[in-house]
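Entry 12.
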Amino acid sequence: MKEVPARTLVQSAALCLASLTLALAGGMIPIAGSFFSLLTPLPLILLSLKGGRVIALLGVLTVGICVAGLLSPGHAWFFYIQFGLPAMVLAEAIRRQWAPEVSVAVGSLTVIVGGMIGLFSLAWGAGGSMLDFLNHRLDIAVREAMELYNKVGVSPDEVGPLFGSGEEVRSFLLITSPGLFMAAALLTTSANFFLARRGSIQATLSGAATPGFTWRVPDSLVWVFIGSAALLLSGLPIAKEIGVNGLLVMMTVYFLQGLAIATFWIRRLRLSPFVGFLGVALLLLQPLLLLLVTLVGLFDIWVVFRRHSLSGPPDV
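Predicted 3D structure (tokens):
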């Protein structure tokens, strides 16, 4: 009877430490650390599913206090809004067995609303508007990117043309920032959701089949994609901005659907997990594959690539 609470305490401490490490990586390691920090909610979701809501809440508060002490109070608030709150929401979605599409949508909405509140707070603290603050952050991002290119040995002759028109780069990022932010929220939320759901079931049902990566959006959503493309091609300045942001979001949605189709066929053909790992690595290295997967997800409306059922349970 005494071993169970002790083991739970050790597991909870380990998960909190993992979340803290990922959060610190985002604040201390340039660029690469930002990618690691995207998985900061994952240990907290597992903590909630294994230990319960109260332990998870205490864990989030503890990690936030540590972040405040090691980095700054501002980083702690960022942690609570961007990582802690979405972790609690996603854990509740998994606990209630919501559909993956609904769970990711609710989790992404939490990230977006939290991000808007955080951006407004930072802009208000700096004494300017949100647009001014965003412009300032984009200037810093462009400057840091140039410094990184110089550090890795790229010659100034090659970097110069790329960033020769800093104003154009900043303007493009500013226009597409809503779409990029929503796309990033969708990708990070889906990664945390599916990894946590798989991890929680593997831990509780040893030997049982784990749920796969399933994703299918309503067919009617294709009209949002078509409407966004029409706005982009309209030539009207404001309509083009709305269209390009809409396309960024919809391409992310259909990329997830294409990824689910690829996962389906890997399981159906009983290919090695190494093939799946290799496929993900190729996706990260080859942008054309990203586009191909996105098109597969889009044309699934008409082709229905998953019309053949699996021999096992539907979710396997």
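Annotation: The longest helix spans residues 166-204. The chain has 13 helices and no strands.
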